[in-house]
Amino acid sequence: MQISNIRMKDNPIDFKLECSTVWSFPKRGNWVTHSSSFRGNWAPQMPRNIILRYSKESDTVLDQMVGSGTTAIECKLLKRNFIGIDINPKMIGLTKKAVDFKSQHDIKTILNVGDAKNLNSIKDESVDLIATHPPYADIIKYSNGKIEGDLSNIHDIDEFCNEMEKVAKECFRVVKPKKYCAILIGDTRRKKYYVSLAYRVMQEFLNVGFKLREDIIKHQWNCKTTPFWAKKSQEYNFLLIMHEHLFVFEK
Ligand SMILES: C[S@@+](CC[C@H](N)C(=O)[O-])C[C@H]1O[C@@H](n2cnc3c(N)ncnc32)[C@H](O)[C@@H]1O
Predict the structure, then answer these.
(1) Rg of the chain over CA atoms, in angstroms?
(2) For residue range 164-200, what is the model confidence (pLDDT) as tens digits?
(3) What is the pLDDT, as a whole number, of residue 3?
(4) Ligand 1 centre and the CA of 143: distance in Å?
(5) What pLDDT is stored for residue 6 in this prediction?
(6) Which of 192, 193, 199, 190 is nearest to 243 (CA)?
(7) pLDDT, position 12
């Protein structure tokens, strides 16, 4: 972990490396180009903790569901080479803008449209760390049904998990032996019943050969729709899901 080498003018002053299995960031980071305006992005503190703990400078980090580019920004700040992929060309456009800031580090950022279920542009065992954040089935639809292969268009949980098995296989193929793959995923409800989507997806990663190093509970903070759902939770007697799981797998 090379925290002492970080130049403070590029980086958060109050950042602290997490050391337990519960992570909570009431104030999401807003340094450099990070922004909360993209619905469904992860707080910068998430990839920053993952990158610092599970990779070193000049390593190659992959986020194959890159969204608005949070992981890409952190890799640029922390001197990691980065490969960013997303099935939605709009996301690749957003990520290009997000990493458009000056850096003196001599590292590469490669961004391409592609499918996390088939990473054919990436060689076997060539990636040091995967840090990624898939859709939680169709809780947020990123392309409103318009892009074939977008995992956020899948409502059926069994179908979603079958597709995530393909993602897991590709993760296992591209990551180097003894290196890491971290994914953040949350649960959902169908009618009044709780669906442990995160554990179902975790099982897919174990089935393809990964070993589980950590199961971190990430506290979710209020979002715009929380007051609406808080009222419903009393009316229909259910609890709001306010946590996600960050699984860290080792090959
Ligand atoms: C939860 S968002 C990622 C947000 C990202 N962590 C950020 O901070 O902006 C999930 C992303 O997965 C992408 N996605 C969905 N299906 C995909 C697939 N089959 N291959 C690659 N990307 C996919 C969506 O377009 C969306 O950008």
Answers:
(1) 18
(2) 999 999 999 999 999 999 999 999 999 889 999 999 9
(3) 42
(4) 10
(5) 45
(6) 199
(7) 81
Q: What is the pTM of this model?
A: 0.94
In Å, how far from its chain's centre is CA 214?
15
Ligand 1 mean position, distance from CA 71 (Å) = 12
**Ligand 1 lined by 136 (C-beta under 6 Å):** no
Tokens coding 204: 């897919």
Atom of ligand 1 nearest to the CA of 64: 21
Q: What is the pLDDT of residues 195-214, one digit of tens each?
A: 999 999 999 999 999 999 99
- 70-77 helix and 89-98 helix, angle to the nearest 10 degrees: 30
User: Which of 38, 74, 87, 148 gets mutated to test ligand 1 (max ligand atoms within 8 A of its CB)?
Assistant: 87
Q: How many domains does the chain have?
A: 1
Quick one: what percent of the chain has pLDDT higher than 70?
95
Q: Is 64 in the pocket of ligand 1 (CB under 6 A)?
A: yes
**Which letter, b or e, does each residue of 16-51 get, where b requires 16 or more Cβ atoms within 10 Å of its Cβ?**
eebeeeebebeebbebbbbbeeeeebbbbbbbbbbb
Atom index in ligand 1 nearest the CA of residue 67 equals: 27
Pocket flag, ligand 1, residue 65 (CB < 6 Å): yes
Distances (CA, A) of 114 to 83, 93, 133, 160, 170: 11, 13, 15, 18, 13
- Could you tell me which of 142, 170, 168, 138 has the C-alpha nearest to residue 156? 138
Distance (Å) from CA 116 to ligand 1 centroid: 9
**Pairing state of beta strands 188-190 and 193-195?**
antiparallel
Cα–Cα distance measured from residue 242 to residue 191, given in angstroms and rounded to the nearest whole number? 18
**CATH code, 228:** 3.40.50.150
20 lies in which domain range?
3-250
